[in-house]
Amino acid sequence: LGQMFTYAEFSSNNSYQASLKMSPHETLYGRKCRTPLIWTETKERSIFGTNLLKEAEEKVRLIRDRLKVAQSQQKSYADSRRRELTFDIGDYIYLKVSPLRGIKRFKVKGKLAPRYIGPYQIIAKHGEVAYQLALPDYLSDVHPTFHVSQLKKCLRIPEEEISMNTVELNQDLTYPEYPIRILEEAQRTTRTKTIRMFKIQWNHHTEDEATWEREDYLQLEFLYLFEDS
Fold it and tell me: Which PANTHER family does the protein's record reference (predicted)?
């Protein structure tokens, strides 16, 4: 297996990079990698003194120019799909909240992804990307001004509000996620060991949204799940 990693590293270092217009090996050493199979040069070039410095400076300048071109192309691709999100005073929007446990363990993906509460009405605009909301009394300890990235437009005037009275919402708009029960148990076998896995139902989630977790993680963070077993 170690020999395969060596081959993979050699292949990566000598593969053509579109942003550099050359391989990493050629970038570092100033020439293409030569092997016994392809020996195109009979001897090394002799470069001394100021000639060596000039060639190194020229190589750095060339690499910087090519990286700028590649970055500019990537930016143009991203900008072509980007759209500005704006709201008007009086609009109703949903406010994004994130499960605290979900952020730590699942990033922003998966079944414990950020959710939305509301809708709430916009009562003021501050600058180009900040909006002040008319929050209910139970969110009085939360600052009422939010960045546009935390908002989602409500497409019609709401008849009822998505309540958060049953959720312990923190001031930074996160709320705790914790497991409430074990649904199933299974074993996952690897080359060297067997790992016990448990299917967990989380608070504020149905059984269909359950996730599989390792036993060692649950024993460390949520020991109470095993107290009755």
Answer: CHROMO DOMAIN-CONTAINING PROTEIN, OS12G0499874 PROTEIN
Single pTM value for the model: 0.42
Ordered by start, the domain boundaries in the chain are 2-80, 92-171, 179-226
What are 14-20's contacts with CB under 8 Å, separation 24+? 18/70, 19/66, 19/67, 19/69, 19/70, 19/71, 20/63, 20/66, 20/67
Q: Work out the pLDDT band at 123, boundaries 50, 70, 90.
A: very high
Task: Report how far residue 177's alpha carbon sits from residue 103's, in angstroms, rounded to the nearest whole number.
Answer: 10
Pick from 148, 149, 152: nearest CA to 131: 148
- Residue 196 near residue 215 (C-beta atoms within 8 A): yes
Side-chain-side CA neighbours of 116 within 13 Å: the count stands at 14
> What confidence tens digit (pLDDT) does each residue in 34-82 have?
665 444 444 555 555 567 667 777 877 887 788 888 888 888 887 776 7
DSSP 163: -
CB-based contact 202:180 (threshold 8 Å): yes
The per-residue pLDDT for range 166-176, each reduced to its tens digit, is: 556 666 666 67
Rounded-to-integer distance, Cα 56 and Cα 64, Å? 12
**Beta carbons of 117 and 136 less than 8 angstroms apart:** no
